[in-house]
Amino acid sequence: MKVLDHLAQSKRPFISFEIIPPLRGGNVDSLLVLIDDLVKYQPPFIDITSHAAEVIYEETTSGIQRRVKRKRPGTLGVCALLQNKYQIDAVPHILCHGFTREETEDFLIELKYLGIDNVLAVRGDDSGYEKPLQHGRSANRYACDLVTQIAAMNHGRYLEQDLLDAEPSDFCIGVGGYPEKHFEAPNLQLDARRVKDKVDAGAHYVVTQMFFDNRHFFRFVELCRAIGVTAPIIPGLKVLSAQKQLTSIPSTFHVEIPAGLSDEVLAAKPEQVLDIGVEALESLLARGRRSLREKLAGLEREEVQREA
Ligand SMILES: Cc1cc2nc3c(=O)[nH]c(=O)nc-3n(C[C@H](O)[C@H](O)[C@H](O)COP(=O)(O)OP(=O)(O)OC[C@H]3O[C@@H](n4cnc5c(N)ncnc54)[C@H](O)[C@@H]3O)c2cc1C
Fold first, then answer.
1. What residue owns the CA closest to ligand 1's atom 8?
2. Residue 124 Cβ < 6 Å to ligand 1
3. CB 55 within 8 A of CB 66
4. Strand, coil or helix: 120
5. Among 163, 164, 166, 301, which residue carries the largest CB count within 10 Å?
6. Ligand 1 within 6 A of 125 CB?
7. Cβ(142) – ligand 1 distance below 6 Å
8. Nearest by Cα to 122 from 175, 173, 180, 184
9. Tell me: the pLDDT tens digits for 160-200?
10. Mapped to the 3 state alphabet, what secondary structure does 169-192 carry?
């Protein structure tokens, strides 16, 4: 079932999760233990991240060597596990970086045959590795280009134009959004316009980068709505679980952690941080629900006044 249908059919708010495939050579059993645990919360779908090859420098007996390594393959395998072992809809992430458009099309065909009809199309971060484009191969630069490719396949347009009996795919396409602006964007307004470009290109819904203060999310949604983005915007949330995340999260994801929360984490013992993170998320959700209820009540009042 598609993410859009889950959103439309659900009678109450639900949570889904994002999981990361194991490191190369890693055991999938620990991931299965984790999924067994997540199943209890009845997530209608689960996202599986994707990881491009990156450049690493390794010290060897013959000096420092540059190597290109894909540390976390396995996105497709984890998707197949979710759909077939757990009957949970899988949402694989698909990247521009590290993949040619031809490889992306092959991946989409694998997904189609597996009955996976959701994808999240993101650009991927610069991993230092630029895939060489040989033999007429091409690459998607921005997520919007990737969405255009997937949407074209949904209309039966594959990269080779003279395919016989090219069957349209039927992917539900999600894209990323940044309540505190993507770090490369000059401002939030322009960044929101890039979200609109992705929706106009064929994306069906938006999932946001994590945030720790509701105000960022509501401001972002208002901005998107004001410029005509009508697609659902799903908030991306993260539980703070370790003190070191006070620096790693802002530096990696370019998001702010509110002073009250960081003070509380700094004053706590390491084993208390997870509980603080859970409480902070619960209160963020409660405030979010309250604010939505107030907004809905305001809209209803306006409608009654209009009708009177
Ligand atoms: C929900 C979510 C899931 C993610 N999952 C993964 C994952 O599995 N694997 C992974 O590697 N990364 C993942 N990321 C991270 C993401 O790949 C990075 O944040 C990346 O830097 C941007 O991705 P994007 O899809 O938003 O890119 P884009 O929409 O392409 O935007 C990237 C930047 O380019 C700008 N831009 C867009 N179009 C244009 C244009 N035409 N001209 C000039 N500038 C433009 C935008 O404003 C933005 O600053 C995820 C992010 C989110 C929010």
1. 49
2. yes
3. yes
4. strand
5. 166
6. yes
7. yes
8. 175
9. 988 888 999 999 999 999 999 999 999 999 999 999 999 99
10. CCCEEEEEECCCCCCCCCCHHHHH
